[in-house]
Amino acid sequence: MSITNLLENWSDFRQQHPSEDRPHREYKWAMSIDLDACTGCNACSVACYAENNLPVVGKEKFAHGHSHHWIRIERYWDNDGREFADQGAQFLPMLCQQCESAPCETVCPVGATNHTADGLNSQVYNRCVGSRYCNANCPYKARYFNWYDYPTTDNVWPEPMNQQLNPDVTVRGKGVMEKCTFCVQRLTVAKSNARSEGRSVLDGEVQTACQQVCPTGAISFGNLVDPSAKVGKQWKQQQVDLNKDKQAKDVTESAAKLRGYRILEELRTYPSVMYLEQLRESAI
Amino acid sequence: MGKDIREDIAWAQINKDVLKSLESPRKLYWVILFIALAMIGVAVGCEIYQYTGGMGVSNKNNSHVWGLYIATFIFWIGMSHSGTLLSAILHLMHADWRKPIYRFAEAMTTFSLMTAGLFVLVHLGRLWQVYYVMPYPNERWVWPNFQSPLVWDMFAIATYLSSSVLFLYVGMIPDLAICRDNIHAGWRKKLYTVMSLGWEGTDRQWRNFRITYLTIACFLIPLAVSVHSIVASDFAMSNMPGWHVTSFPPYFVAGALYSGCAAIITLFIILRYVFRFEEYMTLPIMKKLVRLTFAIAMVWTYLNLIEFASVWYGHDQTAKDQLIFKATGPYAPFFWAMIFFGSILPLMLAFKRIQTHLPILLVVSILLNVGMWLERWMIIAPSFAHGHYPWTWDHDQWPSLVQWGIVFGSFGWFTLLFMVFCKVFPSVSMYEVKEMVYHRSLALKHKPAVKGDY
Amino acid sequence: MYCFLRLSVLLVGLIVSAGSYAVNAVQPLTTADDLGPKVEQPIEFPHDRHAGDAAKGGMQINCMYCHTYARRSIVAGIPPLQKCIGCHQSIESVRETPRIKKLFEYWEAKKAVPWKKVHDLPDFVRFNHERHIQRFVFAQNKPVQEACGYCHGDVKTMTVARRQKPLSMGWCVSCHQKDHPVDATSTKTTHGPNDCWQCHK
Amino acid sequence: MIENSFNRRGFLKVLGWGGATVALSGCGNTSVEDGKEFVTSYVQTADYIIPSIGTYFNSTCAQCNAGCGIMGRVREGRVLKLEGNPKSPINNGKMCGLGQAGVQAHYNPDRIREPLLRTGDKGEAITWEKALALINEKVGGVKAENVAFLTGGVSGHVKALLKNYLDALGSGHHYVYEAVAPSIMRAANKKAYGVEMPRLHLDKAKVIVSFGADFLGAWISPVHFSQQYARFRKADKGERGVLVQVESKMTLTGANADRWLAIRPGTEGILALGLINALAAAGVSVPGDVVGAVKEYTVDRVSKDTGVSAEHIGKLAALLKERSPSLIIAGSAVEGYAHGSQNATAIALLNQVLGNVGKTVEAPSSVPFPQMAPTAGNRFALQALNDNMAQDKVKVLFSYGANPVFTAPASMKLKENLKKVPFKVVFAHYMDETAVEADLVLPLNSALEDWATAMPEYIAEGAQLSIQQPLMEKLYPGTLGMGDILLALLKQRRPEEYKGYEDFYSYLRSAMVSIKGALGGANEDDDTFWDTALSRGVVKLVGAPVNISSNASAKGLVVPAPFVEDSAYPLHLIPAVSASMRDGRNANEPWLQESPDPLTTIVWDSWVEMHPKTAAKLGIVEGDIVEVASRSGAIKAQVYVFTGIHPDVISMPLGYGHEAMGRYAKGVGVNAFKILDPIFDKETGELAMHETRVKVSKAGQRVVIVKDEGPAGGNQMGRKIAVRMSSSKVNLSEEV
Amino acid sequence: MSKRHLLALFNDFDEAVAAIAELRAANIKGFDMDDLILKSPIEHPEVEKVLGDKPVHVQWFTLIGACMGGLLAFFLISGAQANFFSQIKGGKPIVPLPPDFVLTYEMFILGGVFITVLGFLICAGLPAKRSSLYSTKVSEDQIGILVKGDESALAAFKTIFTKHKALEIQEEAGK
Q1: Whose CA is closest to D96, among D664, D446, D580?
Q2: Which of A207, C146, D102, D330 has the most Cβ atoms closer than 10 angstroms to its Cβ?
Q3: Do A6 and E92 touch (CB under 8 A)?
Q4: Contact assessment for residue D485 and residue D427, using Cβ atoms and an 8 Å cutoff
Q5: CATH of the domain at E166
C-alpha cells in the first residue's frame, strides 16, 4: 500500500502549495482589514480574549513580553520629527496571517502546525512540544507561547471566572504555542451545518469574533472561493492575488490607486489577510 | 624545538604511565570533580524549577523565543567537532602527532554531544512530550515533521553521537585489552574484560581493525561537517534577518572546529597536569595544536567577515539593519567582545613563545571559547531582538538566572563526564603511542637525524 | 568469502523486511477492539432491553429516539429524565422494579440522573456526532445501529454501555483514510477530512 | 426564540458544569478517559436547548450608559460570551471592548456574595430579611428630608420604582451623579438648540470638526458613533468624510483624524469664533450680530491665542465652506473649563452658522413615559449632597451605581463628610471605596443575571426601551437585583399597592404588558407581546418630535481670553477618559486592564502623557516617575512621552488607583480624580474637569513602562507594515 | 591426529619476522601457514606482510550498510510523509526532496558506521573467548607467534623460535 501509493501518486505528492493548478476547492478563508475604518479601539482584542479563552497574564508577565493577544492593535506614528502627531496614528490589527506558505509550518519538529484544506494554518495544541521554532520563524511574531501554566498554577481564571471559558476552545496549558485560529470553532460549526444542508457556507453565515464585534466593520472575513463573498470581491477589486508575492499595485503605475496590500509579502508567505491602506485627506 | 615524543620510552613504561592515570591522579582531579558536581546541582535545581513553573521562569518571551539554551546547544555541538578533526581527519593524513591526544579529544566529542543533547530537552516547553519528536510507529498515526531542521538535528546528532561513541570505542579496544591484562581484580577487571571483547591483538584482528577504523574515520568527516551544517540550517533555513545567510553552514563548521581546538588546548593542559602526562602530551604537540587553532581562527575570522560583507552589500535592508543593530545596539559589548576574543586574541597564538607557554595558553584558550560562546549568543539574541517586525522588537531582554544556571551547570556536566571517563578509560591511546614511538625510532634508525627544528 | 556474501544477503533481507514492516505497519492498536473499563452508572441502564433485537427480547428502539441530539449536535446527548418518564409512566409492568423505582425517585426529586461518560474523548478533541450521523445514516442510508456501532461497538447487546473501540487518533485516522487522500487540499467526500483542525480544538 | 419564558428561567441553570473544568485540563491527557466525568443531562428540557449548541438571549449592556443591545451566548446554562444585539438600533450587533468585558463583571471573583452589616471595623454577613428590616427601621427613625438617595444615571422601571419609593418616604433627595458626563454641554445645548442632547448624524456630514469629543472612544455612545463614523468615512455615495479633531490631548478619535490640531487648552471657543469670522469673510452668510461679535477674532489673533497655525485655520474654514453639510461637535475637552459653557455655546454657534442644524444636528424625539426617561447624572449633584452631608442634613444615605468616594476630588472631603452620616446603605457589586465606608452593603445581581429596563439617553431616532434579562441563573443566592430590592422596600411602605407582585420580574412583566399598546404590541396577546419583546431585547417607543432651534445668535456669547500663565503650576492637567476605564467602575475586569491603551499601549497602570518638548524642558524621559502636584494634592506616576499632546498640557487617565474594589483594580495606578482643583463652570456650577493646573517634578525613580509597543515605538523602521495614502487618489465609493 | 598450540614471544620485531619467514621456508610437516597467528601490541602491517595476502571484507559490509541505511531512510521518510495523515506544510510539497535527502544522507552514514562495526566484529571474530595460550606481554611490548601443528612439529617450532631469540615459549598443556 504505502510504497506503491507513494510511487503511483508521486506527482501529487510533489505538488507545491500554493499553486495556480490546485486552487482551494471549497473553502479558502481569508480576511481583509480596512485600516481606514479601523479606529484602534481594541474591541476585537477583547472579543478574542472572550472567545478564545486567552489568559490575562498580569502586569509583571506583560512586562516580560508574555502577553497573549492573538489580535493586537499596533499603533504607528509618522516618524519624521514633526512636532505633533497631526495626522493621527496608524492603527494596525495584527493577527496570524494564516499564510498560504507559512514559514512556521515547515519548521515545527512534530508537525503540530499544518496547512488545512480550508487554507488555514492549524495549530494543534496537544501535539505541540514547545520548541517555539514556529514563532522564531514567524515574521509577524503573531504566535504566543504559554510561558506559564495559566489555568492551574497561575490561576488566571479564579472561580467563578472559569465558568466563562468557551468549551469549544481548549484551555492551553504551559509549554504550548498558540495563535489566532480565524475562530476555527465557529468555522467548523458553520461548515457542519452547511454540509448537513448539502451546500457550502454562505457569505456572512460565519463571523470571526473580532469581525463580529468591530464597531466600524473594518474587518471582513469570508470564503475566497465563493465568488459572491465580500472578501473575494474585495481581493479581486484590489487586484491582490493569493498566490502572488507581488501585486498589481507594486508593479504597475495605473494600479497605484488601489489600497489593498499584504504585509511583508516579499518574504513569500502569501498571507490570507489583506489590509486596505489608511487614507488621509490632503485638503487639510 | 624538541621532539613530539621521546623515541626511547619503553613500551612497558607507556603502559605503566597511562594505567597509572586510572589509579591515582593528582588532588586537583578530585577538586575538579567536586566542583563539577556542584555545578550540576545548580543546573538540576534550575531545571526542576523551570520544568514545574513553565518556560517563563527563564525569562524568554514571545520575541525572544530562544535564548541561551540554543546558543549553548550550538556551542556544545561545535565543541564536539575538533575531536573528529583530530581523530579522523588527522588520522587520514597520517599526522602521527595526534596519537597521544586524540583519545581525549574523541571523548570530548562524545561528551559535548551528550551535553548538547540535554539542551534540546531543557529548551522544550513540554519536555514530557518529547517522544513526539521520535520517528516510531505509534497509535496516533503521526510522524514527526521531517521538513523541520530540528528533526534533521535530531537525526544528525543521533547519528553523530552513536558514530562517535562507536569510533571511540572501536579505537579503544586494544587499550581495553591492555587494561584487562594489567588489572587483576575488581569491577574494573570485569568491565575491561567485557569491553575488550577478547581482543588479543592477532593479525586478523589488527587487519580488520585497521580497515574498520579507517572506514569510520572516513564516514565521520562528512558527518561532522553535515552535523554542524544542519545545526546551521536551524537558522539559515529560517527567514529571520541575520540568519538567512548562505555562508552559515561553513561559518558554523569553522566556528565549531575553532572552539573545539581551543577546548582541546584547555583540556590538554589540564590532563597533562592532572594525570602527569608530560611525557606524552608534549609541548611540541601543543605547538602544532596551537598552530592549527591559529589557522582555524583565521578561517573563522574570514568567514565572519564574509558574512558581514555579504549582508552589507546585499539588498536585504532588514538583515543590514540587523547587523548594524548587532554592532551598535545593546548587544554591542558582547558583539565586540566576540570579535576581540575570536579574531584579535588568537593573533597571540602566532608568537612562538606563547605557543608553548601553558599558563597563557590556558587563559587564552578559555577566552577563545568565551568568544565562541558569545558568537552563538550573538547569532540568536540580536536577531530576536531586532527581527522583521519592529512592533515586537525587544531590546531589553536579559536571560534569567535560571538560564544562566543551566548553562553554567552544563559545563559541570561535561566536566564530570569527561573526568570520569579519563579516570575509567585510558585517556592516552597506549597502542598508538607505541606505534608512534616505534615508527619514529624506525625512522631514526634508517635516516640520519635532521639538524635543528622543523 | 562466500560466507560474507551470505551474511550480507541475510543482513539486507533483515533490514528490508524490518523497514517495509515499519513503513506498511498498521498499528495493532488501531484496528483491534479495545475494551474500555466498566463504568458504574447510577442506574444500570439495559441497552439490550431497549435497543436489542426482538429475537433476544429487545425492543429495537432507534438509538436516536433517546440520543436525540446526535443528528443535530456535536454530542449525542443523554435524554432528559422527562423522556424516560414519558414512556415508563405508562409501562406498569416494570414500574416496581428497582431500577425504575430509582428512576422515579430522581424524577420526583427533580434531579437529573448523574450519568457517567462512557466514551470520553480527551478535551482537545472535537468529535461531531451530527456529521457522522448525517453522512452515514441520512446520506448513505446505513442502518442506525451499524453507523453508531462503527465507534460505539455493539451497544445493543450490552446493558450498561462500555467502550469497545480504542478511540485513539490512529483508529480515527484509519477510517478517515479509507480512500487514500492523494491530495491534502482536497475535500473529496470519499474519505473523511484530513485536517488537524477538523478534530483538534 | 423563546417560546415559554416561564420555563425558560429554569433552563438557565448551570449544567454540564464539567465543561469548563474539563477545558482547564486541555492539553494534558492524551488518552481516552472513560467513566470519570458526568454527562450533561436535564430533567426537563425545551426543544431549543441542544447540548453543545449555544443559545442566544438578548439583553442590554450595563457597562456604560450608552445602553447597547447585547446578545449573550448561553451554553449548558452558562453565559459564555456577549455579542451585540443586531436588533438594537444603537449598536446594530456591534460592541466595544468594555461591553465585551461584561461577562467578567458577572463572573468576577471579587463580587460581594451576601449582605454585610458593619459591626465595628468588620462586615458581618446578615440575611436579606434582616437587612431590609434594618433599612425600614433606620428610614422610619429619621425625618424624610434627611434621607438621601445617591445614584448614577438611572432610567426605566428601576427609576420609576425608585421614585415611588422616595415618594413613599416623602423624601425628594435623589442625587443623580455621574463623575464623567457631558453635563455642561447639555446645558449649553439646551440654550443653543433648545434640547439637551441633539442627535448628531456623523454619517450625513462631509466634514466633522470635533472639539475634543472622543466619540469613537468614550463619549456618550461610542459604538453607535463608530458605526456612523464608518459610513461617514466610506459613504455609499459621495466622497470620504474628513475628520478634523481639535484638542489639547489626543484622544482615540483624534488619532483617527485627518488632521489633529493641538490647541492651547481652553481656547476651543476662540477657534470656533475665529472660524465663524473666517467663514463670514469667505462669504458664508452669517447673521449680522454674530459677524459683529466675532469680528475681533481675526485669523492672526486666533492663531496666536489658540496655537493653531493660520494655515490650518484657513484650510479648515475653506473646507467647511466647500463641503457641506458639516458637523461641529463639542466634546469634553471643550466643557472642562470654568468657561466651558461659553466654549460650548461658541461651538454650537459655529454649527448654526454653517447651517448644520436640521441636517447633521437633529432634534431627538420626546420620550412617551417620562417616569422612565433617563435622568442624566452630573457632578453638581455630588456637590450638593456633599454640602448637605457636611451640614449634617443627611441621616440615611443610599448609594447605588456610583462610587463617590473614589471619584470625588480630595478637596471635597467627601470621605470625612460621609462619616457624619449615621447610616449609609450601599448597593454594590464589589467592596469598592464607597462600600467600604458603608454601614450596610447590599450585594447586587450582575447585569447578566438581573431583570431591568433601560431607556438610553442617546439613540439616533425615536426612543426605545431596552430590556435587560437574566442570561443565566444567579451565581450566588445571596445577591438581589436592584428592582427586587426596591420592590421589597416599597412593600414595606406601600404593601397594598405592591403585594400583588411576587418579585420584580412579575412587576416588570405586568408593567410592560399594561402599556403594550404604546410599546407596539397592541394587537398581540400578553404572552406573545412579552415573548417577542424579550426575544428582541429592545422595544421601540414612539415619541413626539421635538423642535430644535437653529437661530444663530450672538446673544450671551462671551468667550474669555486664553488662560494666563501660572508660574507656580505651569501645566494643565487633562484627566483623560479612556474607552475602557471610564470613571473606574469597570477597573476590576482584567480584560480591560490588560488591553492596551490605544494611544500609549500601556497596560495595568496609570501614566502621565507629556509632549517631548515639555519633557526635555523638565529633563524627563520616558519611564521617569514624576510627582504631579496641583493645589489640591499630588500623585506620582510614570511618564510617557509622545507628540499627541500640547506642550502646555499633561494628561493622566481616570479610573485607575483604586484602593479597594478587587484584586484586579486595587493598587493599579493612581487616582487622578483626587488632585482635581475645585474650580467650577461659571454657569452650571459643574466641576470643571480640565481646569486643574499642576506642576511636575521628577520623583527620582525610573521604571520600564509596561506597554505593548516595543523599543521601536510607533516607528515602522522603513518596513511596509501600516501604509497610508492620500485620500484624493482613491474613490472609496467604488470599492466593495 | 591431535594438534597442539605453541606460543612464542619475541621482543624484537625483526626476529619475529625472521622466525615466520623461516617457518614458512621450513615447510614443516603437520603445519599449515594458515594456522599461524601473530599477536602484536601494535598495528604492524610490515610484520603482517610476511603472513601473506589475507583479504579483508569489512568494506563490503560498509557498502551494503550505507546503501541500505540511505534507501531505507528515504523510503521510510517519504512513505511516512505520504501515507500517514499527510499534511501540507507551507509552500512545500507533501514529499519534499531536500529535507528527505538530508535525512537520507544522515542515515546513509549511520547505516554505514553501524554495519561496518558489525562487519568488523564478524570479520575479526569478536567478541571471542581468549585462547588459552596468551601472554599479557603481547599487549605490552612483545610480539607473539601462535602456531598450531601436529605434535610432531612442535620440536621444529621450538628450534626455530629459540634460534630467533624467543623470550618465552608457552606450550599448551597436554591432553
Answers
A1: D580
A2: D330
A3: no
A4: yes
A5: 3.30.70.120
What letter represents residue D631's amino acid?
A: R
Q: How many CB pairs under 8 A join B and D?
A: 30
**Rounded alpha-carbon distances, angstroms, from residue B358 to B233, B271, B283, C32:** 37, 12, 9, 68
* Domain membership of residue C163 as a residue range: 31-78+115-177+195-199
C-alpha cell at position D628? 504631579
Q: Is the dihedral of CA D67, D73, D76, D79 positive or negative?
A: negative
Per-residue pLDDT reduced to its tens digit, D263-309: 999 899 999 999 999 999 988 888 888 888 888 899 999 999 999 99
CA distance D656 to D536: 36
Question: E with D: 3 or more CB pairs under 8 Å?
Answer: no
Name the CA dihedral angle for A117, A121, A125, A130, rounded to a multiple of 10 degrees. Answer: 140
Q: Do chains C and E meet with 3 or more Cβ pairs nearer than 8 Å?
A: yes
ipTM: 0.90
CB contact under 8 A, D34 and C168: no
D562 touches chain A (CB under 8 A): no
Range scoring the smallest mean pLDDT among A255-269, D31-45, D441-455: D31-45
Q: Is C27 exposed, middle or buried (0-12, 13-18, 19+ CB in 10 A)?
A: middle
CB within 8 Å: D32 and C110? no
Q: Does E125 touch chain B (CB under 8 A)?
A: yes
> What phi, psi does D438 have (nearest 5°)?
-80, 160
Distance CA E26, CA D451 (A): 120
Report how many domains make up chain E: 2
Per CB-CB distance under 8 Å, the chain A contacts of D229 are 39, 216
E63 and E111 both lie in a single domain: yes
Name the CATH topology of D5-106: N-terminal domain of TfIIb (2.20.25)
CA distance D714 to D722: 10
**Which residue in the set E78, E87, E95 is minimally distant from A114, CB to CB?**
E87
Nearest to E135 by CA among B182, A167, C116: B182
Order of strands across the sheet that contains A273-276: A219-223, A29-34, A273-276, A260-261
User: Each residue of D587-631: pLDDT tens digit?
Assistant: 999 999 999 999 999 999 999 999 999 999 999 999 999 999 999
D403-441: b (≥16 Cβ within 10 Å) or e? bbbbbbbbbbebeebbeebebbbbbbbbbbbbbbbbbbb
Nearest to D674 by CA among D694, D703, D697: D694
Interface partners of chain C (CB pairs < 8 Å, 3 or more) are A, B, D, E
Fold topology of B11-385+418-438? Formate dehydrogenase/DMSO reductase fold (1.20.1630)
- Are residues A16 and E93, on separate chains, in Cβ contact within 8 Å? yes
**DSSP state for residue D216 in the 8-state scheme:** T
Closest Cα to residue C116, out of D41, A19, A251, A27? Answer: D41
Contacts of E137 (CB under 8 A, 6+ apart): E9, E144, E167, E168
Assign domain D571-702 one CATH number from 1.25.40.10, 2.40.40.20, 3.90.1150.10, 1.10.10.10.
Answer: 2.40.40.20
Indicate whether D366 pLDDT > 80: yes
All cell numbers assigned to D339: 468657561
Phi, psi of B135 (to 5 degrees): -85, 100
Tell me the residue length of chain A.
284
> What number is the average pLDDT over the span A132-144?
93
Q: How near does any CA of chain A get to the CA of E75, in Å?
A: 7
